[in-house]
């Protein structure tokens, strides 16, 4: 038996197509996982600050939390509210007393710097730079890093790299200045590369000198009593035995 042919008008067909399309869209929407938007916070931030008055420690802490804030997309308002989570000890006590002064995130960062790492006058920084020359046991990487950290505390634009090299070069241990001419240096990178080569060569030289030296005089050993420090002819034990036999 033949199936009856269903006839539809153009309007009915268009309505059917639209109904199917809407049903498909609704089904896809319900199947898609819901996206949960959460606010960023310092809850999982591992950086902590206890109130030590140390320029490097303060800058390291600030750099760490500013970077974390950007990565986690924490708003200034939420960052300001959660900043207390990162303090302990003296810093926590200090923050309780000054937090009302921090109206913005920028205010909070400025307060931390002003209280725990106030800007040193330039003359004091220069005194610290020239206070100590490089000791023989201090690697060039460590020494240059320390001096450049001090130079970075000077007002911005005070010296170019050429001038900073002049300041640091004169403080280097003589073993570097003997092998590296100042006029051959254009950057700190070149200084460090040449300095590492000198350190490597010195280590090799010390290793060779610490080994057995060819031609070194051997310690005397007696063939009679087998003790070191004398020969067979000098052996008192042999002479005593010989005298007894006589």
TrEMBL record:
<protein>
    <submittedName>
        <fullName>(Mediterranean fruit fly) hypothetical protein</fullName>
    </submittedName>
</protein>
<feature type="domain" description="Ty3 transposon capsid-like protein">
    <location>
        <begin position="45"/>
        <end position="195"/>
    </location>
</feature>
<dbReference type="InterPro" id="IPR045358">
    <property type="entry name" value="Ty3_capsid"/>
</dbReference>
<dbReference type="Pfam" id="PF19259">
    <property type="entry name" value="Ty3_capsid"/>
</dbReference>
